Every structure is written in structure tokens, then in C-alpha cells.
UniProtKB/TrEMBL annotation:
InterPro entries: SusD-like_N (IPR033985), SusD_RagB_dom (IPR012944), TPR-like_helical_dom_sf (IPR011990)
UniProt cross-references to SUPFAM superfamilies, sorted A to Z: TPR-like
Domain SusD-like N-terminal: from-to ranges: 22-225
Assigned keywords, A-Z: Cell outer membrane, Membrane, Signal
Matching Pfam families: SusD-like_3, SusD_RagB
Annotated compartments: Cell outer membrane
Entry keyword annotation includes Membrane: yes
Domain RagB/SusD: from-to ranges: 352-502
Protein species of origin: Aquirufa salirivi
Coiled coil: none
Family: Belongs to the SusD family.
Gene3D superfamilies: 1.25.40.390
Stated name of the protein: RagB/SusD family nutrient uptake outer membrane protein
Amino acid sequence: MKNKIILSCLLAVGLTGCTESFLDITPETSLSSVTFFKTQADFEQAVNACYVPLRTIYNDRSWLLSEQHSDNTYYARNTAFGATEQQEDLADFSIPVSNGLTTNTHVLNQYRQDYLIIARANQVLALIDKADFDATAKANLKGQAQFMRGFAYFELYRYFNKAPLQLTPVTTREAAAAKMGTAADLEKIIMDDLIGAAANLKPKSTQEAGRATSGAAKTVLANLYIIQKKWAEAEKLMKEVVAEGNYTLIPDYNNVFSTSTANKNNAESVFEVQFQEGSNGFNGTFMYNFLPRPMLETELKTLSGTSNPQPQTGEGNNIPTPDVIAAYEAGDLRKDASIGYILCSSTLWEGKTYPIIKKYMKTHSLNGNHGMNWPVYRYSEVLLFLAEALNEQGKTAEAATYLNMVRKRAGLANSTATSQADFRTALMQERRVELAFENKRWHDLVRTDTYKAVITARGEAIKKDPFSYYYQRGYTLRSNSFSVIEKYYPMPADEAALNPNIK
């Protein structure tokens, strides 16, 4: 299967004529949906194509909009390189906004990649019921398309809290300008798709590795229910995932995350994005995106292990902040597994030694090219979701059972929180360190409505002591830093120019 799902993805891109744009109107090949979507193999290729944008989202974008847009990470300013406003605007909460729209490139590309998933899934879902092939295989393929569309709308829901409603293939230019959906509209789509996916998909024990499973669908749906504060519904789903017996905590946190060639889709993995090292175009580069700069080739080799390391220039991103480093309790085994340090002898920052995200620093063969998978949902988060859902219903003693399973693996004693309020605080602290650098923190701050207080305090800390946040001595933040602390991202201006319903 190692190459099967990935190779089929690229074939499907060519066959269906999908591009990076919002939605295609004119087919780019002689094959049309009428002539192509006939056999099980046709639908397998089309479903595989739905997964492809995930690599772009998680390699290039999600960490910028989620982790670096929180108090967990920051950028390593390289004043010798020049400005990189697009990334800095996200980290410094200074995104340009006019009439509810933004020109930020990363916001635009996240939006477009999600709609690329949606467009491909719509094509599958519009035609698969009419196709004649094995019913079991058809249900599984349909479930994957439902999962992917539900997941993409869940991304839009969390980032924008509104989005145009596209649920059928676009065949005319007028149809591309879909009406804007509210948060409630998106919630219904997500629930319908994920409930359908959970019913159609195979469990992890029988599903082909790397594909969506019924457990993954239930986990994303539970995530939505938790945002909606539907605690009983979230509890039910997470208990079902636990009862499956298909997942377990890996005893050593160091071994939770994949290497470039091994440990992928392991016992703790609920859903992860597939990468493959090599020249076929399926590789990741996110490890390199997360390195401070400048870095000599000899310094890089200590992390990558490659035989041909190249010096790193430009500006580093996603550097752990002093805040998240201090968040770990004494004796927490996750700290050394998650955060390491690297000397950058040529950097202008006087501190020279930077923290790095160690959980993604794995040796590999090719410079600038690795195959580490990205963890989207892990079993530890299922346990923390369950603990949260139970506590919010007043079942704090039962909730502690699941929280303490996660703490025990980290080498920590049981939580001392006994009241609902104290347990709530303890659980969010546990989520921060257990899931650090996995693109969870910003969304947790939003759903708990603590984002403004936390980010305001973070901005004040950076302005007070820029050096501790990787600025050279004497440098200060831009005057507009931490001036746009909003709960949701503004809609992309380029898409509003194409669809008058986007406001």
C-alpha cells in the first residue's frame, strides 16, 4: 500500500482536471465525469485525490494559522534576510483587514486547499450511488469522501466560522459563486457528513493504512460536539472509540511520532497525513520550515543526518516560545521528547542557541526532503476529549481516569484537581503539553474563549522582552503587532473578488 494511495492521488489529479484554484469550471483533459466515473478503480482514484491537498495544508500552512498563531511558537527573526510579513502577520496578530477581508496569502491558500478537497469529494458523492460495483467497497469509498468533505468544512468552520456552501459539483460559472453559509449551516454539513462517514467507513483494524476510518470520523465529530458543548454526544462517541480496542497509548512518548520511513499509522494514530521521502513529490519539508536561521550545514546535519546538508537561510518559523517550555511540569517526559536545542553560530541573535520542535526532528536520507507523517488526531486526544466531556457533565471522578492515563505515560502523578473548575484548568494544561506543536493550541484558545486574554498577555511579554523571543538586542516589534486579535480569520479578498457572496 505504500505507493498505492499516493500514486493513485496523482493519477486522479490528472484525470479529474483539478487545480489549485477555488473551483474548476472547464475540464483540463478530454476525460469528463460522465466518461470517467464508472468502475471501482475510477472511484478509488477519485477518492485518493481528495487526500492530496492534506499534504499542502499540513506541510505549508496549518502550523502557521494554528500553532504560530498562538502562544506556543514564534518566528526566529533574521534581520539580515529582510521582512517576511505574511508569516509575521499571523504570529504578531497584525493581519491586514479591510471590510472583513484579508490579503494574507496563507489565509487564502488554506481556504483554497479546503475547497479543493470539497470539490473533489463533491464529484465522488454526486455519482457513486449510481455506480455498479461491490457494495462494501462502495460504502467504504463513499465514507472516505464524506469524511474528507466533512473534515474540510470543519477546517473552514474553525478558521472562518462561515463559508460558501458547495455540496454539488460546479458545472457553471454562476454556480461557483455559492451563497455564504453561517456557522450553523456548516455544523449541519459537518455532522451529516461525519455521521455518514462513521457508518460507512471501516474500523482501523480492517481499513487500509493511511485512509480515514470510522474511529477518525467519530473523533472529528466529537471535536465538533465539544466546540458546541454537546458533552453527552461527545462522551458517547469517544467511549465508542475507546471500546473499539483498535487504539492504545504507546508506552514511550518518544516513539509516538513517525520517522521518515517507519512507525507510521501506529497504534496511537487515529488519523495522520501521509508523506513519503523521495523524488516522487510526496515528501514533506516541514522539519526544515521549523528550523531557526541562519544555520550552517554542519549544524543542520546534527538534526537531519543527511549526507549533503545545505546551509539554511531566510527566516525560521514555529520556534517554541519560553511560555510553552515553562508549561511542562518537573519530571514530564514529554518535554525532552518534544523540545530540543540547536546552536546556530552564525545567527545575529545573541542567544545563539534556539529551542526546536524535537518531535519532528528525525534523521532521513535526502536534504530538504523527508517522509515523516503528520499526526492530526492521536488516541491521547481521544482520552482527553472523553475526560473533558465527562467533567463538563459533572462526572469529574470518572474523567480523572482518562486524564491520568495520559499523565501516567508522561511519567507524572495523578492530577490533584477534584473540582470541576480545577479539573477544567488541569485538562487544558494537559492538552497544551501533550499536543504541543500539533496545531491544537489556537483552536483550544478560541473554543474556550480565552484567546484574547492569552494573546494580549503574550504580546505584552514579547514587547517587554523581545530578546527572549528571538529578537536581536535593541530591536523592537512592528508598531501594529498584536493589534488585530480576533476570534476568526477574515475571509480572503481574492476569493471575495470571485464570489460576491463572500463578505
